[in-house]
Amino acid sequence: MTTDTLTRSTGLIPLSHQDDPRRSLDDNALVEASRNAFPIVATRVAKRDRAGLAAGAATALLLGGITFWSMAGPEPQVKAPPARTVPPVKAAVPLTPGPAPVVPLTPAQETAIAQAPQTATVPHNAVDTAHAPVMVWDTSGAPEIATSAPSAPIAGAPAKVSAPQPLSENESFASRMGDAGTDVASATRIVDPANTVTQGTLIPAVLETAIDSDLPGYARAVVSSDVRSFDGSRVLVPRSSRLIGQYKSGLAAGQTRAYVMWTRLIRPDGVTVQLASPAIEYSGASGLTGEVNSHFMKRFGAAGLLSVIGGLGALVTGGTSLVLSGGSSAASVAAQRDAQIPPTIRIRQGQPIRVFTARDLNFSTIAGSIQP
Question: What's the pTM value of the predicted model, to 2 decimals?
Answer without folding.
Answer: 0.46
